[in-house]
Amino acid sequence: MTKPSVVMLIASFYPHLGGTEKQALEASGFLLRDGVGVRVVTRRLPGTLPQEYVDGVPVVRLYCPGRGIFNSLWFMVSAFAWLFANRREYDVIHVHLASSHALAACLAGKLLGRGVVIKIGGGAGIGELAVSSSTRSGRLKLKLLAWFTPRVLVVNEDLRAELAKHGLGALEVSVLPNGVDTGKYSPALFDEKRGLRGRLGLPGGTAFLFVGRLSPEKRMLEFLELWAETMREMPDCGAFLVIAGEGPLDAELRAAARALDISGSVIFAGRRDDLGDYYRACDVFVLPSVSEGLSNAMLEAMSCGMAVMATSRGGARDALSGTKAGYLFDPFDKPGIKKLLRDFIVEPRLAVATGEAARARAVEAYNMPATVRALEEVYSSVMRTDKTCAE
Questions:
Q1: CA distances (Å), origin 260, targets 210, 227, 247, 255, 265
Q2: Closest listed residue to residue 290, CA positions, set 260, 314, 325
Q3: Lesser CB count within 10 Å: N end or C end of the chain?
Q4: pLDDT in tens, 178-222
Q5: How far is CA 290 from the centre of its chain?
Q6: Domains and CATH numbers, the chain
Q7: pTM for this one?
Q8: How many alpha carbons fall within 13 Å on the CB side of residue 103?
Q9: Who's near 152: CB < 8 A, 6+ residues apart?
């Protein structure tokens, strides 16, 4: 069967690499290697070229002046113009996030008979669906999306349920978790792990790692308070916490670590584009968010053989429930979180055994080739049902 040609339409892309952008880049590379034609269309960021290749993926960057709503509207119009002008070069438009550019894709798909797939982002209750429903323009956008009837992708069942709350329940929805490159993200051997800690300047005790945006929904301020209590109760345990990421709470978190007198056991690594060495050097991945879609960082950590202690919300629950790959906790259960911290610190073999199960779970359920095959099935489906209009 002939492979489809796909446009990945996304508002921002490399060198900006959030979870959405990273997943789009890695999936695009695997799709290309599987014979699918892929081109990324995005806004042009300062210092980037109008056209280039990123890790072998062709990228078209559209000039979009201004900021805020003006910039978004410009991208919506320019994206539609590009899709119309290049209509013979693709079969499917895959939109990442249901922002204003999703309307441009839907209109182009309706006029040109092209399949449109929209991937919803964020966690249930705090993601883009909830944000859109809080404004008049956002509610109008959701109504238009419901009228256009694109295929929708979500990463967990919570998001599927939320679609109905915002008037999108009649759309055809596929639950398709994020994927991870299990070849790139692989566990370190014992001696290699020890060497990595030396190069990264990390101590020798039990290493906990958080990776993500430093924003309120991640609940890292609250986690630091629990960490401080645990360190006071276990003063000579040797455990330490690495926080990798940036965001609006960066300065506040650093100040809290000083105020709580835990600077000696908390390491702020800042933003890291390549986190593989940290995953391989640390023992336990921590995800205390109040809500999650499906954390790419968690999947990468699992693939590198890290144990996981994570929120019982969203995609983390789907990934870990009924497995030995990690432990779930309610993000507001302070005693439960502290117990998990103590368990991992007191019994280092627990992290080893859990990490081995996490690696097996990542390979079995979240490997990127399987994700790509599922994506191709979705593409083929929307091509059959949507490509009916004359150009």
A1: 18, 9, 20, 9, 11
A2: 314
A3: N
A4: 999 999 999 999 899 999 999 999 998 999 999 999 999 999 999
A5: 15
A6: 5-179+368-386 (3.40.50.2000), 190-365 (3.40.50.2000)
A7: 0.92
A8: 17
A9: 117, 118, 119, 120, 163, 168, 171, 172, 173, 174
